[in-house]
Input
Amino acid sequence: MPTEFPDIVEYAEYRIYLRDLYRVMKARDKRFSHRFINSKCHVRSSGWFSDILAGRQRLKPGQLQALASVFKWDQRTQDFLSTLVDFERAEDPKSRVAAMERWLALKGPKHEPVAKDRFAFFDHWYHLALREVLSLTPFEGDYQALGAALCPPIDGEQAREAVELLQRLNMILPRTWSHRLSDLPVLIKAPDGETRYWHHILKDMMRLAFIALDASKKEERNFSALTLSFSPEGFQKAGDAITELRKRLLLIAEQDREQDRVYQALFQMFPLTRTLEVKDV
Output
C-alpha cells in the first residue's frame, strides 16, 4: 500500500491519480472511504466515486470542485485535474488540442536536449529504439535477446555496445536491469546541433520504413500519403498541424498504461515541384 502522496504532474489520466491518492488517504485514515467522499460531495448515488474510478462515469467540472475540498488540493493540482477533465470531455479535435496544450504547458517541457558531446546517440537508429525498450521491459543482461527484440534485429554485440554507450551518455541509468524504468525525458536535438547528425538519423529511420512496409503486417503499421498544393501560408499551417499531431501522440503515449511495443513515427512534407507561376482563370 503506497504511503507517499502522488504528484499530479506525473499523471496524464485523472482516474489513476484519484485511485492512487485515495489509497494513500485510506492507508492513513481508515475512516476515509468511498461513502465518506460521496457524502462530502453531496451526491445521492452510493457508488458515485467507485463509478468515477472505474470509468463508468465522467467527472464533471462542478464535481471536481467538490473533490478539491475533500482532498484539500492546492491550486496547482486543481489546474492539472481541471485540464485532464476538460480533455476527456472534449468532443471535437479543436477542444482536445486546446486541453492538451494547457496540460503540456502546466507539465512543463519534459525533454532533454542532445548536445554535441552526445551526438553519438544519433549514430544508429537502434540507440533510440533500445532506450525505449529498456523503459518498457525488464533486462537482466541477455544482450542477444535484447537485440533480437528489435525489427530488424541486431546482434548481441551491437546491443551490448549500444547499452554501454547509452550509459556513458547518461541517457539510461547504469544499473542491473531487473525492473521497468519510467518517466524518461524525451530527447531532442539541441538548437545548436549540427544538421548533418540529425539528417543521418532521419535517413536511418526512413530506410527502416522501406523495410517495415514489406516486413510488417498491415494491422501492425500505418502508412499513408497525400499529394497536395499549398501557398507558403498554407504550408506553414500544415506544418503547425503536424506539430500538434506530434504533441497529441506524446500525450497518448503518456496515457497508455499497457505499452508493449516501440514504434517509429515519421512525418515528411517536401516539394515535388519548383515554385509555379499560376495563371488566374
User: Anything to note?
Assistant: The two ends are 72 Å apart (CA to CA). The CA atoms of residues 126 and 162 lie 8 Å apart. The mean pLDDT is 84. Residues 112-255 form one domain.
